[in-house]
Amino acid sequence: MINVGRVNQLEVIKEAEFGWFLDGEDYGSILLSKKSAPEGIAIGDVVDVFLYFDADNQIAATKETPVAQVGEWGLMKIEGINNVGAFASWGIKEKDLLIPFSEQRGRLSAGQTILVYVYTDKASGRIVGTTKFNKLLDKTPARYQPNQQVELLIAERSDLGYKAIINGEHWGMIFPSDVFGKLFIGKKLKGYIKQVRADGKIDLSLQKVGVAKMDDLSEKILSLLEKKGGFLPLSDKSTPEAIFATFKTSKGTYKKSIGTLYKQGKITISKEGISLVTKD
């Protein structure tokens, strides 16, 4: 089945002076121009190509991969504005992505870099973008459990923290106390459900919460100590950046974990770092 707006695998069926024609099934032959084709292409090859509508509203193929395909979010730069809407660069050189005025949450301006959702407009059949995410999210009840791992996409920043899209389905919030490392709009990362409130709003964490967080980190510390010969140059005096680079956790959480391991007699702590206690 051919999916316009997504990457498809199509067979090369004919060569022309200006490119190659691909088998588009019900859509007929689809042109892959020479400048968009891979080297060494030949009739009978099956190639991965992205399908889109060109300036003449004809289906075209390219080996370029967009920032986001239909059904996905992507960070894009606004290249220009006209009387129809804004046009964003989405990785396809031949054609920018239209974001109609009706799909803009606040007017956009050239030079802005924003998060965009790509979809197929049912009325026109065109591939367009939207920044009105509320109509896409929270359509189903949030049935998440505390400490459940989820996929996050950072979508907005506010005085309350960072709003993130959870598994492409729901809104969630990462409060400043749960932020560590560098976050930015468009960043994709794994996170955890902190709680689902009575009003349906979801709090998020970038690490497991409660006892589960401590247990998980302790296992990682002990495992890395064993791999590194029993010593790590990370003490309770190390910088937050050094700790995050190794364990992707906050300094406070790290200090609590090594403190617990020390009390359990599993490690020793010095100014230089931590050492694994070996049993005779």
From TrEMBL:
UniProt-listed SMART domains: S1
Superkingdom field: Bacteria
All copies of domain S1 motif, residue ranges: 69-132, 145-207
Family matches, as InterPro entries: CvfB_fam, CvfB_S1_st, CvfB_WH, NA-bd_OB-fold, S1_domain, WH-like_DNA-bd_sf
A single GO molecular function term of this UniProt record: nucleic acid binding
PANTHER family, sorted: CONSERVED VIRULENCE FACTOR B
Similarity annotation: Belongs to the CvfB family.
Name this protein carries in UniProt: S1 motif domain-containing protein
Native species: Vibrio hangzhouensis
UniProt lineage: Bacteria, Pseudomonadati, Pseudomonadota, Gammaproteobacteria, Vibrionales
